[in-house]
């Protein structure tokens, strides 16, 4: 019966997505919903796209296995990214009337920088989308009572998300996300209310007190160089590295004016940070209600603690609500992050390779949809490989932003706020950042200075050196 309700929910989501496809008339509709979305839809997209599998399954698992400091990249870094993007990037980028973030690198620098940055941005999504698809496989595996393997669940989940993202683009993302955010908020709050009423839990305060006594709220690093650098790098890898991302840009760019672009992103990021506490509360409560189950799952896979706890201790309707909310969380993130790299590759790499850029609007739309399919195949392959390598959902998301922190962030910031930033500066920034990051990944991946942070610092040096040697002359 539970699986039947979940299937019904999937059908409804697909139906909403297919209805949204009727609004897609051109590439602008597919990429950014015609830049027509109001505050509620933008807030919903920002919140629900980032409130993904790692928030419900990955972050709580990390919290149980480590402590609050283990979550520095997400939700702390993720929320920092959204708030910074809204305050400092949304308005200038919105005014440029771009279709993709790759367009910025072409207009501000040159075509080679556009191509390299677009490829780097698209590559960074492989880990993030794969984390969502892996989580879908995990949900189907749990719901079917192990009848459906996690690998088979990955294939099913990828097919569902592909179906409604393929045709509706950003309109599908917007409408399905608004529906899914409603399910997420209402569902998880109600589940938290039910869990809080359990005699072993008895509200919020006892859970917080127990976690504090267990040392779970240890957050600040020891005052030594290596610990502080690791802490800061964990915050900035996602806090800075996820700013030059197409999905963040697309949500702001879909707004119908600058005010919505700015404050829709800031409000969505703030709501994400606050609501991320709910899965932490639910998962830690499981250790009080059923310590034996929790202990067993911690040895096997901490990501199973929350869904297994719900399945074992909550009534059927509550299970339906929880797994509906969980699927909402995952699919809303997966659809948006599947669309973003596909749009970037189509607009900034494939289109520009055509002789004379000779591609009609209809042809570009077909190409973009084809890229969505191809990228989905790549995501599935990476997900299955990560499953064999036992890479956690939280790790997959953290790894996604290393490439953009080391290569894309500095050219974006300086391109907006430093007039002297030049083509040579951008080129050296990318080369220095990529070389230092990749070299450190191979030579000393566990060094006190994390490789991606070393790449970030080298990228900044490259931009300064190149722009001093050959200054830019951007007007305005």
Short description:
The chain has helices at 2-21, 27-32, 39-50, 53-65, 72-95, 101-108, 111-143, 150-196, 205-213, 225-239, 246-253, 258-275, 277-289, 291-300, 305-313, 316-353, 361-389, 393-400, 402-407, 409-417, 423-443, 451-469. With 476 residues, it is an all-alpha fold.
Describe the structure.
The protein has 476 residues and is mostly helical. The protein has a single domain, classed as Sodium/glucose cotransporter (Up-down Bundle), CATH 1.20.1730. Helix content is 79%, strand content 0%. It has 22 helices and no strands. The chain has helices spanning 2-21, 27-32, 39-50, 53-65, 72-95, 101-108, 111-143, 150-196, 205-213, 225-239, 246-253, 258-275, 277-289, 291-300, 305-313, 316-353, 361-389, 393-400, 402-407, 409-417, 423-443, 451-469. Helix 3 (39-50) crosses helix 16, helix 4 (53-65) crosses helix 18 (393-400) and helix 5 (72-95) packs across helix 11 (246-253). It is globular, with a radius of gyration of 22 Å.
Secondary structure elements and their pairing?
Elements lengths: L1 H20 L5 H6 L6 H12 L2 H13 L6 H24 L5 H8 L2 H33 L6 H47 L8 H9 L11 H15 L6 H8 L4 H18 L1 H13 L1 H10 L4 H9 L2 H38 L7 H29 L3 H8 L1 H6 L1 H9 L5 H21 L7 H19 L7
Poorly predicted segments: none
Describe the biggest sheet?
Answer: none
Shape: globular
Mean pLDDT: 87
Task: Throw out a few tags for this protein.
476 residues; mainly alpha; 79% helix; Sodium/glucose cotransporter; single chain
